[in-house]
Amino acid sequence: MDHSRLTENMGLKVGSLAVALLLWFHIATEKDVYERVLEVPIQVEGLPSGLVISAELPPVAQVRFNGRGKRLLTLPWRDVQVVIDASDILTRGTRTRSIGIGNVRYPEGQDLHVVEILEPEQITIETDRLVSRQLPIVARMEIQCAPGYTLVGSVSVEPDTVTLTGPGSHLRGLSFVETDTLRLRRRAKNPIDQEIPLQIPSIYNLIVEPYSVKIMQDIQPLGERTFSEVPVRFEGTDHPDRYLAQPRTASVTVSGGVRLLEILTVDDIRLILDLSRQRPDGLTPLIPRLELPRGISRLRLEPQYFRVTEY
After folding, report:
1. What would the CATH number be for the domain defined by 222-310?
2. pLDDT tens digits, residue range 211-246?
3. What pTM value is reported for the model?
4. DSSP result, 74-128
5. Does CATH place domain 12-120 in 2.170.120?
6. Chain-centre distance of CA 251, in angstroms?
7. For 238-285, what is each residue's pLDDT tens digit?
8. How far apart are CA 129 and CA 234, in angstroms?
C-alpha cells in the first residue's frame, strides 16, 4: 500500500475538514432549537431609600431557556437577570415574592425564550431601616517587648472611630469594633506604626468605612532614675499646714522608658500620707501612697515609713 498518497496535500485535506465542520456547526446551530439551564443572578430593584435588605437572598435562580443553538451560545449572559420589584415595600418587615417567567430580563431582539423557573419558585425579602452609626475602635494587641525595652503610654488608633451603615436592628447591639490581633512576642524594640484590618461584624448588607486603621504604640529602652527630694503631701485633712512629716522628703527610684524619664519632674511624683485613716501622734509610723504617671513604675522608696506631728 502506498502511504505517501494518504499524506499527500495533508494541509489542504485538514483545511477542507475544518471548513466542513464549521459549515455543519453553522447549519446545526442556525436551524435546530435547543434547551439550556442556566444560573441567573437574582436582583432586587426599586427598594425605597431608607430601607435595606437585612437577610441574605438566594444569589441565583435556575432558569430553563430554549432557542436556536447559536443564540444560546452567543448571548451575553452577563446581561441576563431575574429582577424582583420591591418598590411597593415601604416599611421594615418580611415579604414573600414569587418568581415567574416575567421576572427574567434579557437583551431584546434575541430569538430566545424562557421556558420555566426551576428554582427557587419564590424568595423571602427581609427589610430593615437603613441606619449609620459611628463606633469607637478597640485595638487588640499581644506585644512582648525585647529584654531591656518597655511599652510607653497607651496605644493610639487612627482613625479612632468607624462608620457602620446597614440594618438598624443588627447595629443596635454594637458598642465598639475591634481590630485584628497584632502579635509581637519577645522581640519588639521599635515604636509600632502598622496598618491592621478591622474585625467586620457578620451583618448582611453592611457598609464599613474604613476597613483598616493605623495602630501606633511607643516602645523605648527601659531605664531608671532617682529623685532624692520628693516632698511628702498630706491628704484627708482640711488643714495640711498644721502637720509636719519626719522626714519631710523621700528618695524615690522609678523605672520606665528612657525618653519618658527624661521629661519626668519631681512635681509629677506624688508621695501622699492619708491622715483620714489614722490620727497622727508623732510616734506611730505611717505608710505613704505613691502616685506615678502612666508608664512609670516604682523601684525603691526610702524611707518607707513616716511619723507626723501636729503643731
Report:
1. 2.170.120.30
2. 999 999 999 999 999 999 999 999 999 888 899 999
3. 0.70
4. HS-GGG-EEEEE-TT--SSEEEEEE--GGGEE--TT-SEEEEEEEE-SEEEEEEE
5. yes
6. 48
7. 888 899 999 999 999 999 999 999 999 999 999 999 998 878 888 899
8. 58
